[in-house]
Specification:
three-stranded mixed sheet; 12 helices; alpha/beta; 48% helix; Spore Coat Polysaccharide Biosynthesis Protein SpsA, Chain A; seven-stranded mixed sheet
């Protein structure tokens, strides 16, 4: 008969609790994905639309994003495109300014003394203050958009909707590292989509979002987080959900996907993910922060359990059980989301990504909460 001491019992109960919590989280996402829907009508909004493209040092990408945006299958008199220069030190501003810009395209520059520490958020806010649109769409200067992107993103708007999140994915690349990034990034998008479907909007990506300008001002925009370098997307979405009666939707259409490049190096990947993780502790919903901490502790337990197994074999068994539960449930969620938004062939890299995901989550969560990072050649304080 196997006997356990009090410490082992407490640890096993804690592991069980964390596993149940994480399993419930994944099940919620799965059923949330099932509640998403395609566009109910193809009618574009009556409101004028402003597409904001903040950029800093994007000389290699800015002409590509410009071409993908001006070729949108959308009435030219119904939208404008504003490129917002955020203190670029390369040839970005020269390249975009020298193009033959259509009448609905403008280039503006953020003044040096305008909210200096807000970085990307200051560029977006400056764009909002200088745009004509009643609906704001933001995307990134390193993205590529198919010609029906804008139409498919905006068709989700109705009088009850204030915020629409769209899918994003990395371009197909050749190395295993880039393929692993692609499926990991797809996983983040799928999680965000499922949580919106479950009516608990939590994460989204500023490369592909749209919201009503009047609601942006109604919830005070970025006022209370201008000191954070990130959060121009999900913190705003969460505020709209919590402080208004408007609906949050996800554009569950493959033609609503925007594409961008994967990180070229491990250091770029590390800095990007650390920046994304840096805003979690600043969510307004403290219960949500607690849930994220519990998820983090679940991942931490997947590292601690094998180590404890050298002192008691039961923890080797508990590790195998919890890791298998994680893999099975995550594969169900991923297959559902990939089939809806992306390409299922990426699932062949799922298991190897699962192995590296555990230490990655633990390291990024800790460094994002307490460390600084480099973004667009800037050293940024959290």
């Amino acid at each position: 008969m196997i006997s356990f001491n009090l410490t082992e019992i407490v640890l096993l109960i804690s592991i069980l609790f964390l596993t149940i919590h994480y399993s419930y989280f994944l099940i919620k996402i799965y059923f949330g994905l099932n509640k998403l829907f395609g566009c109910k009508n193809s009618k574009i909004p009556d409101e004028f639309v402003s597409v904001l493209v903040p950029f800093r040092n994007e000389e290699l990408n800015i002409q590509t994003v410009y071409e993908s945006l001006i070729n949108q299958n959308y009435p030219e008199d119904k939208f404008e495109i504003i490129f917002i220069n955020d203190n670029s030190t390369d040839q970005s501003i020269k390249i975009i300014s020298n193009l033959s810009l259509p009448k609905n395209v403008r280039v503006i520059t953020v003044p040096d003394d305008y909210s200096k520490n807000a970085h990307k958020k200051r560029a977006i806010r400056f764009g909002i203050e200088n745009c004509k649109g009643e609906i704001i769409v933001t995307t990134d200067a390193d993205c590529i958009h198919n010609k029906n992107w804008l139409k498919n993103l905006l068709c989700y708007f109705d009088e009850n909707t204030a915020f629409v999140s769209g899918p994003a994915e990395f371009l197909e690349e050749s190395t295993l590292f880039e393929k692993m990034q692609k499926i990991e990034f797809a996983g983040l998008v799928i999680v965000g989509a499922g949580l919106i479907g479950a009516r608990t909007p939590t994460i989204c990506n500023a490369a592909n979002i749209a919201y009503r300008k009047k609601v942006f001002y109604q919830v005070d925009g970025f006022l209370h987080n201008m000191n954070l370098s990130s959060g121009d997307d999900e913190l705003l979405m969460q505020k709209i959900f919590q402080d208004t009666d408007y609906e949050i939707k996800f554009a569950a259409l493959k033609d609503a996907v925007v594409k961008t490049k994967a990180n070229n190096s491990l250091n770029q990947f590390y800095q990007q993910r650390k920046r994304w993780a840096s805003k979690g502790l600043f969510y307004k919903n403290k219960f949500l922060i607690l849930k994220l901490i519990l998820i983090y502790l679940f991942y931490l337990s997947l590292i601690i359990q094998p180590l404890l197994g050298f002192f008691s074999e039961v923890f080797f068994i508990s590790f195998l059980i919890t890791f298998c539960i994680k893999v099975i449930l995550e594969s169900l969620v991923m297959k559902r989301g990939m089939n809806m938004l992306f390409d299922l062939h990426l699932m062949k890299y799922f298991f190897i990504t699962e192995i590296f995901q555990v230490p990655y989550i633990v390291i990024m969560g800790l460094s994002g909460a307490f460390g600084n990072f480099v973004w667009k050649n800037r050293k940024v304080n959290r």
